[in-house]
Amino acid sequence: MFKEFNPAEDKILRVIDNEGQLINKKWMPQLADEQIQKAYNDMLFARVADTMAVSYQRQGRMFTYPPNLGQEAISGALGNIMTEEDWLVPAFRELGAWLAKGATLKDIFLYFKGNEEGNAFRNVKKLLPMAVPIASQLLHAVGIGYAIKLRNEKDIVYTVVGDGGTSEGDFHEALNFAAVWKVPVIFVVQNNQFAISVPFSKQTASVNVAVKSLAYGMPGIKVDGNDYFAMYSALDYSRNYASEGKGPVLIEALTYRKGAHTTSDDPTKYRTKEEEDFWGLTDPLTRLNKFLKAKKLITDTEEQTLIEQYKKEVDRSFEEAENYPPTVLDDVFKYTYVDIPEDLKIQQMEHEKFLKWKEAQK
Amino acid sequence: MNMVQAINNALEIKLREDPTVVLYGEDAGFEGGVFRVTEGLQEKFGEQRVFDSPLAESGIVGTAVGMAIAGLRPIVELQFCGFVYPAFNQIISHAARIHNRSRGKFKTPMVIRFPYGGGINALEHHSESMEAMFGHIPGLKVIIPSTPHDAKGMLIAAIESDDTVMFMEPKRIYRAIKQEVSEEKYSIPIGKAKVLTAGDDITVVAYGAMIREVQKAMVMAKSKNISVELIDLRSIYPIDKETIIKSVQKTGRLMIVTEEPKSFGVAAEITAIANEEAFLYLEAPVKRVAGFDTIVPLPATEHFYLITPEKIFYELEKTVKF
């Protein structure tokens, strides 16, 4: 696969076209109809949840949120490839992958409602919290990969970064360390073509992201990130490669961020409607929907029923997050250290005294 | 043992008894580090556990964060205090925060070791004392030994700590002090200062390479009948307020001797502690003897910058006579 889609020639792996027609039989993953249906449903759920998250934010019920709209196939395929034993080291725009790993929507909403507790994903063993400093999480994935290798374990580490993140020094260091140490890490670059407002063309003079892998001595492949089957196929191939002890892989998933960078951003300021319309034709859900329809695996009515059902489910999770008990002062202090210094305990006690005094003034 | 040998001994003890301990950095494996602190360890424990990494400080610390999350106890060596800066994002944004961000689900039991301080005729970037910057970061613990005995016990405590510990090594006295150090395992708790000499007239707080300089100044002070109580701070953060306050309450005078740039430093923090907790006991203003707020000069000019016993005595006498 890596030879066939040589990134130096800017080749791209694509399995279905925008009409959902199979165009590359060779790399069509062997998936049962039910698996494809499930994958579609998961992506649809992620889209419903994501769209509703944006509207909760607009209603003032949630703080800043980074929408996933248009990038669901990447998360969807990742979610279906990962096992419980694998690690996911996320950035912050992989809603579908977190859900697939077992994170709850309630926790995710809780986090974007400003409660750190939502970022712990306590119920999931090998999922790291979201990492905001761009590309810095990639090095954690490499370190985890080293631990896996040292202990002769079989886990794979999946880590995600955006196209902007590929300009960071930590991207370079992570790829270099990973290749030198030959660790089982799969780097997934969600190239959604924008780092907030800065387009990909201003991010790098390289022909694509995947080609950068070659200089580090590891394979890389550019994939149509809006094509679920292509993503699945590339991840599946990379997983096998890494689990044979051959080292890391870089996957560039070419996609388009249909929404804003976050709810605080206005993309109409830096891109045109024509451009958005053009990329709209590549929408991952539309394509998979067309594929399923052609195989008579879904109807519009069925889809509508699913959406209604998902909306209720998402609302229920949001209510759970809204009904979560309010935070207390201890939440500020108790996790700064494992072994909490005496002085920090005193700072907390002193503030408690102040709060009592304030209460008594009422 | 000298301090280099004592640190090496601590590393060997922990590598031997705990299979989750790994040690790496630039030149830290095969060569044993630029100061030979890790010499012989790769031979004893193999290239999987003691190794050279690519030359990238952010990469070294960032991968250690990942290893710690995955259950290892990495010890990383950065070559000089002045080379820690490329790793700041990983130290401040992750090593110090993963436990908080994950609400206790993940912890980062790792040690970041590096030599610091001046007085070795070094190039630019090789003589810095930036402990205050690390002390200022919530989530980090910062410790500095002043003797081989302490270096061993404190490093063992650091490796066993579930929090990220910055272990700063006063390279100027790496080989300058030799003392009996037990081959057995022992640890010295993080956050505890030590009263090295009891005295009545003035409390002097110092740490690292400055202890030896203060001790020389104390010989001069003795000839003038000034009785000094010397405290080795040992831990920059958590800082042992109790030991400092108790001493100041007894002596009524306080001087802090540090190599760091004077402004916004550890000495300023200790001054604030005396102000908040022992104000009415003070008979003289608290005195800071510290480096200048300048870049540490190159060897031709460094003698102006270095804190000498004479300078310490000069300030000590003024404070006692105030």
Short characterization:
The complex is a heterodimer of chains A (362) and B (322). Chain A contains 13 helices and seven strands. With 362 residues, chain A is of the alpha/beta class.
Write structural notes for this entry.
- The termini of chain A are far apart.
- The model of chain A has no long low-confidence stretch (mean pLDDT 96).
- Chain A is built from 13 helices and seven strands.
- Helix content of chain A is 46%, strand content 9%.
- By secondary structure, chain A is an alpha/beta fold.
- With 322 residues, chain B is an alpha/beta fold.
- Chain B has two domains: 3-173, Thiamin diphosphate (ThDP)-binding fold, Pyr/PP domains (Rossmann fold, 3-Layer(aba) Sandwich); 194-321, Rossmann fold, CATH 3.40.50.
- Chain B has twelve helices and twelve strands.
- Chain B has helices at 3-17, 41-45, 57-69, 88-95, 98-101, 131-135, 148-160, 210-223, 241-251, 266-277, 299-305, 309-321, and strands at 21-25, 50-52, 73-77, 111-116, 140-143, 164-170, 194-197, 202-206, 228-232, 235-237, 254-261, 287-291.
- A seven-stranded mixed beta sheet of chain B has the order 2-1-3-4-6-5-10, with helices on both faces. In chain B, strands 7-9-8-11-12 form a five-stranded mixed beta sheet, sandwiched between helices.
- The radius of gyration of chain B is 19 Å and the shape is globular.
- The N and C termini of chain B lie far apart (41 Å).
- The model of chain B has no long low-confidence stretch (mean pLDDT 97).
- The chains are: A alpha/beta (362), B alpha/beta (322).
- The interface between A and B is large, with 42 and 48 residues.
Question: Count the helices of chain B. How many?
Answer: 12
- At CATH level 2, the architecture of the largest domain in chain A is 3-Layer(aba) Sandwich
Structural class of chain B, by secondary structure, is alpha/beta
| Helical content band of chain B | 25-40%
CATH homologous superfamily (4th level) name of the largest domain in chain A? Thiamin diphosphate (ThDP)-binding fold, Pyr/PP domains
Secondary structure tally, helices of chain A = 13
Distance between the termini of chain B: 41 Å
Instruction: Kindly provide the name of the CATH class of the largest domain in chain A.
Output: Alpha Beta
* Percentage of residues in strands of chain B: 15-25%
CATH topology of the largest domain in chain B: Rossmann fold
Total E-strand runs of chain A: 7
- State the separation between the terminal residues of chain A, measured CA to CA: 70 Å
**Largest sheet properties of chain A:** 5 strands, parallel
Overall tally of structural domains of chain A = 2
Biggest chain-to-chain interface with counts: A-B, 42 and 48 residues
Overall 3D geometry of chain A? globular
Biggest sheet: strand arrangement of chain B = 2-1-3-4-6-5-10
Tell me the helix content of chain A.
Answer: 40-55%
Strand order of the largest sheet of chain A: 1-2-3-7-6
Structural class by helix and strand composition of chain A: alpha/beta
Strand segment tally of chain B: 12
